[in-house]
Structures are given as structure tokens and as C-alpha cells.
Amino acid sequence: MIDTRPDPLVKAEWPLHTERLVIRRMVPADIEPTWAFRGLPEVAEWVTTAFADLEAYRKVFERPDVIGPALVIERDGIIVGDLMLRITDPWSQTEVRERANGTQAELGWTIDPTHQGNGYATEAVRAVLDVCFGPLGLRRVVAECFADNEASWRLMERLGMRRESHTVKDSLHRTRGWLDGLSYAILAEEWATVSR
Q: Cis omega (within 30 of 0) on the bond before 33?
């Protein structure tokens, strides 16, 4: 079912500016520059889909449900990574569902390997969390990764996200087989404390 609700990300002012970065909504012109690093084997290792080529990638990223929650991270006008900020509805009982709708987000990120190790992911995710718990008015943000993706879960912990689950061999990796999975989350009130 296609979500026909208004775009929730319009509640924030884009682009975001950090000390070194600009974070903005993805546009179709960003498809090829993001493919330049997303198509690399070391990046494809951890992302949901390893696309065969640029055209397969373009076909998916042109869809409104994919490009809509996508953000790009720029440093001096060069795209150094991307983020996904998908507003979701947490589980709720039927009678209170309306109060729960759109109060949570799932967050994901990818950094071009040539720009890794500079703290860009930490800086960008921190800025997006500020937006989540500020203008977007969310109450909870979640992120997941394979347990073997140490860089990802270390970033979540560095930002004060709480490990909520460590599942055993529940996540099927395309080449590594069944791997453990990790789920992290942070609440608005927790972010208010750790982001000071």
C-alpha cells in the first residue's frame, strides 16, 4: 500500500548546515554521484540491495518512496555520503493509533569509503537527530545493522543510541549467510540529555 500522507520531512528546513557539512534532500541529479560509491563492493557489503549497475540503481532511486526519505551529505559541494530518514508508525493499539502515527523514524547512512574516517557520519547523523527531535517532533528514532558491521553500531553508540536487541543469526547476508542483527534506538528525552 502506498502512503498518501503528506511528506513529513517538509516540517524541517533543508538544507541543514553543520560545521563542515551540508545535508539536503536527495534529487534525481544525485543518483549518479551516490551510485559512484554505493556501487563499490565494500559499500554494497552492508547495504540492503547490491545493484547490478547504475540503471538498476536509478530505477529504484527514482521512485518517490525511495528518493523521498533520502538525504545527501556534502562537503565543499562534493557528495561524501547519504542518509535515509524514513518516518514510520510504531505499533499501537487500534484505539490510539492516530496518536502514534508518524512519531518514529528509521535512520540509515552510507559514507563514500574515500571520505570515511573523518567523522562525517557522526556529524551528519547528529544533525539529523537534532532535526528528528526538533522540527519533526518525533519521539523515537531507530537504526539497525548486522552485528558484523562494527563501524555502524559503534557510530550508534557514539551518538548515545541504546542497544535494544542483539538477535542471533536472524539476518541473512547475501554472501556471509545468517548473521546476528543489532537494533538501536533513542528517545527524544534521551537525546536531550546526550546531545548537550
A: no
Cell 551510485 -> residue: 35
Copy the grid coordinates of residue 51. Answer: 545493484
Integer CA distances (angstroms), 123 to 62, 126, 129, 163, in order: 27, 5, 10, 20
* Residue pLDDT, tens place only, 166-182: 999 999 999 999 999 99
- The rounded distance, in Å, linking the Cα atoms of 120 and 20 is 8
pLDDT 10s digits, 2-29: 556 788 899 999 999 999 999 999 999 9
Using DSSP, state whether 150 is helix, strand or coil: helix
Q: Which three cell numbers stand for residue 65?
A: 518512496
Strand partners, 75: 78
